[in-house]
Amino acid sequence: MDPISALHDGILAKIVSLLPLKRMLRTSLLSRRWRLVWTTVPAFDFTDAADDNVNVYISRIDSCLEHLSASPSCMTIPSIVFPAIQDSDVVDRWIRFAAAHSVQRLKFAMWMDYTPPIPFTLPLSLFQLCRGLTALDISSCEIPGVLEPVISPAFPSLRSLSLFEVTIADPRAFFAQCPAIERLTVELLNEADLLPASAFRSCPLISTLRLAYCTVPRETPSAGPPAFPSLRSLELDYARVAAPQSLLNSCPVIAELTIRNPVPEGFAFRLDPRHTVSTLRIFGPTVLPFSLPSSSFRTLVLFDLEIANPPALIRAFQGLELLSLDSVLFETGADSGIQVRAPRMRHLMVQDSEELGTIVVADTPQLCRLFYWGDIRYLGVFDRAVPKLEEAFLHCTVKNPYGGKYHLWKNLMQPLSHVRLLSVNWWFICESTNAVPESPPPVVPSAKENEDEFLIMMENSIDLNQTEGLQIVQRVPNIGQSSLPQLKKFTMHQFSGGPGDMCLLYFVGLKGCALQHIHLYYVKGSRGATHRIQSTVCHYFSTCSPHAILQFSKCSSDENCPRHAELCMYEFYE
Fold first, then answer.
1. Is the peptide bond between 153 and the residue preceding it cis, with omega within 30 degrees of 0?
2. The organism sits in which domain of life (predicted)?
3. Staple 183 to which of 208, 386, 438, 559, CB 3.0 to 4.6 Å?
């Protein structure tokens, strides 16, 4: 017996569970030892077996379920994902199988791009047999008004419920079957369908709620408890709320409010100090005529918005810890430009918002991360404004923004000279180099022949002695800069192996005496991907930095810095 086959059944089941369904089933052909291993897997995703022919698809799943039912080792299946087949009889058969195997997490997922979706009627067997469910995810179905559970409520243990492109005949009756639910997502098939807030009174434990493509109607005020006594996070996406203030007041402990794609009325919520919202995310397009309570907000994310009241926005900075502006502009006639004075701010992210005017970082003593993507001429940093800044990510979308005027480049970079990680693209290199060689340099320039040509000794050069990380995210022609005695890690993305890239590597090896790690992402098909260029680089760094680790990785021609992908403002949208 081979070493893998000798492993415990539980370990083999864990290994097999990582495979797609088709490959999982093929393991039964390996040997007698593997024949029933796949039947002990704790989770099955039958959407992996999709076929354009619906009848063939159903037959495949039914055949698999028959084998599982006949296997003595398959007693319970905690998690199952079925396709949302538009056939109630088939779905009923699968639900009964799941109930017989004590399913806890059940999902009916969309497996084809229907336009529009074809809903099926949800079988009553779901409400009669699946009392042990803890997570339920349903797509493209009609939930009947008469549920008829054997014992009410039908889902006493359900904690997470997600409904996508559904119609609910009687929302109050349906949500009454889920009294313990904590995380709820409801996306209706028709945005005109009504979903009253009072329908959720039977679910007092909801802490996270997302409503999409629905209408929350105005209701008569009730003397009872608030509709959402435990709600901490509310997200509205294409949701029309008839009485936004009433909805907000029914969430006494809400901390996060996210508005996506506001209805034509725009952002209709009025926030004041009595509300507990600390995180506000708004994604337009819309005009934002808001007044923010400056004392409560900690996180503010604005995307594709027109600000009608700039002073209110600036006043809100006082309590902010994170500010993200993407494609934001001021209403016509408003003063342009912002001075960021925020004593608590730790993260500032600005992207494609040049129409705001100049963003000046004036007084942010706690700022540790600065992310700017756009025309770098619209960014300014006061001297001693960012004493604790650790990471600066500056991507300019304009070629040669300062036109070779070094003093303008220096005015921006001088207050950032103490950062531990500096990530820039080609604008930084072009502006910091005041000489360009007339002829292409050799692949690896020698120090004696080319030091004056490529390592420009600039007067009043910026002190980057504290910099521990330097990333060049696009191909650069050449570089000139002062010594970097503390540089430990150097990363270059889109390494093409061209003369300019090789000169940059030569500079890093010559000036980075403390280098520990060099990581080059080479472009497939370029000179940087060839064995000759990589061998030349290895030989050079083995001489000048013998203790540094040199690593090559493949990337596409348009692939950007992974670190930027992490820091991009969209990570705060989820």
1. yes
2. Eukaryota
3. 208
CA separation for the pair 67, 60 (Å, rounded)? 11
In which domain, by residue range, is 210 found?
A: 104-217+226-401+418-423
pLDDT tens, 310-351? Answer: 666 777 677 888 988 888 887 665 566 788 888 889 999 998
Other C-beta atoms closer than 10 Å to the C-beta of 283 total 19
pLDDT greater at residue 446 or residue 159: 159
Percent helix, strand, coil in the chain, to 5, is 30, 25, 45
Dist CA 437 CA 422 (whole Å): 26
pTM: 0.76
SS3 string, 364-402, reads CCCCCEEEEEECHHHEEECCCCCCCCCEEEEEECCCCCC
For the record, the structure tokens of 388 come out as 């604790």
Q: In whole angstroms, what is the distance from residue 496 CA to residue 537 CA?
A: 12
Can you give the pLDDT at residue 291? Answer: 58
pLDDT digits (tens, 9 = 90+) for 350-376: 988 877 788 888 889 999 999 888 888
439 lies in some domain: yes
Instruction: Specify whether the backbone of 525 is left (phi greater than 0), alpha (psi in -120 to 50) or beta.
Output: left
Pair (269, 336) in one structural domain: yes
Q: What is the largest CA-CA distance in the chain?
A: 88
The total domain count for the chain is 2
For position 335, what pLDDT does the model report? 61
